[in-house]
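Retry 2 of 3 after timeout on previous attempt. Resubmitting structure tokens to design endpoint.
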């Protein structure tokens, strides 16, 4: 081994050789070069460093690594002598000092969602941040973002890196108060501290109580603190206003409550981007904001900012991006000054309550803005009126979105002048007329959405010329005719939705021949016939296919086997009367998340297949037979919705269905038997359970109400027995309880009115319940349907029933009956003398049915306060008393049945006002008197509805009233000569009556005005009297009016004095 002396001699020799090479350099240059070289060699000899890396900095990095958790061994390269070659480390070439440390998570596909966390955490660094990092004295770049340090606080020592220019700690799982020591980073130009509490545990929330330390970052240019929670009094604006070089500020989701209305001095001379969106700013639009002439991008969206856009917006001459969306209290007129922003390219005003007519805003969109604007988004702004022709003047416009408004009228042809337009969204308006052919001129159009309007006519074949079109949605309109074959030339099309129209005709393979990129296809709810052969090979690979209500059968479509990427498939109501092939339940269904083949004629045994991807399975309304496989809950482990209703299934309900993943069960209308499983303790996610119309027996299991979010229970039409279990008291979220047509005994529990306060539907009909109706049921304020019919209930109808709040309001204005994800609430309601199945319009039904019991006493007058009642059935009881005259207040009533009681007295004449009444039954009571005629009542021509009331008379009964000479019906026709004579006699009497009335009027008029006409004195006296009366009335009114003014003045003075 060489001695130090030998090594030194070798270095001197090398120095001589180097000097010889640079003989031609000037003396000063040569001396500097020699000095630098000698210094580096001496440092090596002293052992201060190793080639390419300072020893002290290498040790600092190793010490920092020792505190980290590295599950995937990302830092495996941190070995050896040269730390400058390590992963994430960069050194300065001339000096060899470490100047950059970039340990950002390499998982660049991370989209900040819960689903990405497992893969993201796999690559995340964790552990602790050790202060050994302070050995990197020359560090100017530090990036620890996208890792997960489990709520660790930001270390205070990070404020000691005086040369640091770039610091990124975003989404690193850091939490707590941000240390003010970061204010010592006077060289810092970029500071990124984004925090997202939606994807990390709540402990990782970053917060700041006093932002004044930010003002010390004198070199700061870019600041992003998205998700950092600013506490009250954080002085964030004052701090930012002291930064002379700040260019961009992003403070999204920071819980900022207000913006100071004024600043002593606006220092934002370099500010280009200001983003304060997604906060709780509830203040006026600050005036100082419009003095920042350098501002190019301003985003104040999704706050609670008040007042209109001020005219001073014209001062922001450099503005190219403005987003004020989601400020619900921001309302009023768009100022004309907006049209003078010649550089504005992107304008977003979504969700602002403008509530004006769109075509009246030409002033705000007139000027040089027409030559610059590229994006105009004004969705959900309460716009009405029509689409103005001047929209076609924005020649640079690329995105036009006016969806979710109330704009009516046709689509103007001037839209076709927008030659640069790439996206046109006009969905969810009231547009009518045909789709203009001028849209074919939009050669750059990529996305066209005209859905949810009232457009009619045919789909223009000219749309086939939009060669760049990727997205086409014409759904939920009134389009008719056939699908033009020219649409098949849209080779770039990825999304096609034309569902819910009146389209007809045959769709052949030629329509799809060029759809090689198609991913989404929805032709549902039309009258289309798909003429596709079994050997057809589709050119596309769909992900979503919806063909509901199209004609696809009778054979099961074998071409589906070629679709390898389908995740959502709906071929319900397709006229398929075949069995499902084996390949369908094999590899084909493994990737499907939602499958609906309901309402066909599919036969065969219920399949048993495995799928970990499936979330929703609907096989209802078919002819599947056999038993439900015992392991169905395990073979489809993530299933959330299962509908097997209306099939021919038998056997017991499998225990494997008791899983926490399930949300909705619908096994109704089968032949299932046995008892309900008592295994629901772990099924925390279930919202709806429908086992109605089977052959189930036994009692309701206690575990069924361990489900915290349980909202709808249907067990009707079974053989269940016993008393209503106390365990149901725990189902405090129930909105629907349907236990009708079983064998339950006992009384109606009072705890229903005490605990189940969210019930909208209570149906206990056709059981064996006894006792009185609990008056406290009236505490169910949102109850919409009460059906206790066909039991053995006794006592009186509680007068407290007038407290059913929902039943007091008009039809459809309050309805609280919910529909659920994957399930539409449905119920059988006995109404108008028959059983009706309601689903889609169930929310409109407000009904009370207490029929078929042993109730007695009078009908409470208070029921007449339930103004929203659509159906009232009290028949088949022992009710007495008279029908209240107040019943005429039930103007929404369509069905009224009071038959088979002991009611007496007359039929109230107020019933004439029940203009919606289409079913009436008052038979078999003790009613008497004349049947009222008029309006709706005279349409009831069936005498049986009054049968069994011997005291009633008049139309439509054959029995005449005593004071009548003939039947009182509006179209009554006598059956014999006596009736004819009676009618002729009555007609003569009416003619004489009218003649005598006319003669009397003429005589009386002449008796008064005749003397005035011929006697001058009488005439003058008469008009003097008229003048005197007029003067007296005028003076009285004038005096009264003056007194009223004096009284109001005194009252105002009193109010001022008292305040």
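Retry 2 succeeded. Sequence:
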């Amino acid at each position: 081994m060489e001695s130090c002396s030998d090594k030194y001699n070798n270095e001197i020799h090398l120095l001589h050789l180097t000097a010889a090479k640079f003989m031609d350099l000037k003396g000063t240059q040569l001396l500097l070069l020699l000095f630098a070289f000698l210094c580096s060699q001496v440092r090596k000899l002293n052992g201060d460093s190793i080639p390419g890396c300072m020893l002290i900095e290498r040790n600092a990095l190793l010490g920092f690594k020792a505190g980290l958790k590295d599950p995937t061994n990302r830092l495996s390269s941190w070995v050896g002598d040269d730390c400058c070659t390590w992963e994430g480390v960069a050194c300065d070439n001339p000096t060899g000092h470490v100047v950059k440390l970039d340990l950002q998570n390499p998982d660049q596909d991370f989209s900040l969602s819960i689903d990405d966390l497992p893969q993201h955490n796999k690559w995340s660094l964790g552990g602790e941040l050790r202060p050994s990092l302070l050995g990197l004295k020359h560090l100017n770049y530090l990036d620890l973002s996208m890792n997960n340090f489990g709520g660790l606080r930001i270390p205070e020592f990070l404020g000691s890196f005086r040369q640091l220019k770039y610091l990124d700690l975003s989404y690193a799982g850091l939490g707590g108060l941000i240390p003010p020591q970061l204010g010592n980073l006077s060289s810092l130009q970029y500071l990124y501290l984004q925090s997202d509490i939606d994807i990390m545990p709540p402990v990782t929330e970053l917060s700041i109580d006093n932002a004044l330390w930010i003002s010390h970052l004198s070199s700061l240019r870019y600041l992003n603190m998205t998700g950092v929670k600013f506490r009250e009094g954080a002085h964030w604006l004052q701090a930012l206003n002291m930064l002379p070089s700040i260019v961009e500020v992003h403070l999204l989701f920071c819980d900022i409550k207000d913006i100071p209305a004024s600043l002593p001095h606006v220092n934002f001379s370099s500010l280009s981007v200001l983003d304060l969106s997604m906060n709780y700013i509830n203040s006026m639009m600050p005036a100082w904001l419009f003095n920042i002439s350098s501002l190019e991008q301003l985003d104040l969206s999704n706050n609670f900012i008040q007042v209109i856009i001020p005219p001073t917006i014209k001062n922001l001459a450099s503005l190219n991006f403005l987003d004020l969306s989601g400020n619900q209290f921001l309302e009023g007129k768009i100022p004309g000054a907006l049209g003078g922003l010649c550089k504005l390219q992107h304008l977003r005003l979504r969700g602002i309550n403008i509530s004006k007519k769109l075509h009246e805003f030409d002033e705000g969109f007139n000027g040089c803005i027409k030559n610059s604007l590229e994006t105009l988004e004004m969705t959900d702004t309460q716009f009405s009126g029509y689409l103005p022709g001047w929209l076609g003047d924005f020649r640079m416009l690329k995105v036009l979105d006016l969806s979710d408004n109330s704009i009516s009228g046709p689509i103007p042809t001037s839209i076709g002048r927008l030659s640069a337009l790439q996206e046109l969204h006009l969905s969810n308006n009231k547009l009518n007329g045909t789709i203009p052919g001028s849209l074919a001129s939009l050669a750059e159009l990529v996305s066209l959405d005209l859905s949810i309007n009232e457009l009619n006519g045919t789909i223009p074949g000219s749309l086939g010329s939009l060669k760049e079109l990727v997205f086409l949605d014409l759904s939920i309109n009134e389009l008719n005719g056939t699908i033009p074959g020219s649409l098949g030339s849209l080779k770039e099309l990825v999304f096609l939705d034309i569902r819910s129209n009146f389209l007809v005709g045959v769709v052949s393979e030629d329509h799809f021949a060029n759809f090689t990129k198609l991913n989404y296809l929805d032709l549902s709810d039309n009258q289309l016939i798909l003429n596709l052969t079994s050997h057809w090979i589709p050119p596309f690979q769909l992900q979503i296919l919806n063909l509901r209500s199209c004609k696809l059968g009778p054979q099961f479509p074998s071409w589906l086997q070629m679709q390898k990427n389908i995740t959502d498939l709906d071929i319900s109501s397709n006229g398929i009367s075949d069995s499902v092939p084996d390949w369908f339940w094999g590899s084909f269904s493994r990737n499907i998340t939602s499958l609906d083949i309901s309402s066909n004629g599919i036969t065969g045994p219920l399949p048993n297949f495995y799928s970990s991807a499936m979330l929703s399975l609907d096989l209802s309304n078919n002819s599947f037979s056999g038993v439900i496989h015992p392991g169905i809950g395990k073979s489809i482990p993530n299933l959330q919705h299962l509908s097997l209703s209306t099939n021919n299934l038998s056997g017991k309900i499998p225990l494997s269905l008791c899983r926490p993943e399930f949300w909705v069960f619908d096994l109704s209308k089968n032949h299932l038997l046995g008892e309900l499983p008592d295994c629901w303790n772990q099924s925390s996610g279930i919202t709806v359970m429908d086992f109605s119309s089977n052959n189930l027996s036994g009692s309701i299991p206690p575990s069924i109400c361990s489900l915290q979010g349980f909202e709808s229970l249907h067990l009707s039409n079974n053989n269940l027995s016993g008393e209503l279990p106390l365990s149901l008291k725990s189902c405090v979220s129930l909105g629907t309880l349907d236990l009708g047509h079983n064998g339950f005994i006992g009384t109606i529990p009072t705890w229903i009115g005490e605990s189940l306060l969210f019930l909208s539907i209570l149906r206990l009909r056709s059981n064996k319940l006894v006792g009185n109706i609990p008056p406290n049921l009236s505490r169910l304020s949102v109850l919409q349907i009460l059906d206790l019919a066909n039991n053995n209930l006794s006592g009186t109808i509680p007068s407290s029933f007038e407290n059913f709040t929902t039943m007091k309001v008009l039809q459809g204005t309050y309805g609280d009956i919910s529909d659920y994800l994957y399930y539409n609430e449905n119920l059988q309601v006995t109404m108008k003398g028959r059983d009706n199945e309601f689903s889609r319009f169930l929310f409109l039904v407000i009904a009370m049915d207490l029929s078929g019991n042993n109730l007695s006493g009078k009908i409470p007058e208070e029921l007449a306060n339930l103004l929203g009642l659509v159906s009232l059935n009290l028949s088949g009881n022992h009710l007495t008393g008279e029908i209240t005259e107040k019943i005429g207040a039930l103007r929404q009533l369509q069905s009224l049945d009071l038959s088979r009681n002991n009611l007496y007295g007359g039929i109230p004449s107020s019933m004439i006002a029940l203009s919606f009444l289409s079913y009436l039954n008052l038979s078999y009571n003790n009613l008497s008197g004349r049947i009222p005629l008029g309006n709706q009542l005279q349409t009831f021509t069936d005498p049986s509805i009054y049968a069994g009331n011997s005291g009633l008379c008049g139309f439509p009964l054959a029995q005449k009233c005593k004071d009548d000479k003939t039947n009182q019906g509006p179209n009554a026709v006598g059956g014999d000569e006596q009736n004819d004579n009676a009618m002729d006699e009555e007609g003569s009497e009416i003619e004489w009556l009218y003649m005598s009335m006319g003669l009397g009027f003429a005589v009386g008029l002449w008796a008064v005005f005749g003397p005035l006409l011929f006697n001058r004195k009488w005439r003058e006296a008469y008009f003097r009297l008229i003048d005197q009366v007029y003067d007296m009335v005028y003076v009285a009114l004038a005096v009264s009016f003056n007194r009223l003014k004096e009284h109001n003045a005194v009252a105002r003075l009193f109010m001022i004095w008292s305040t």
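Attempt log closed. The longest helix spans residues 1016-1058.
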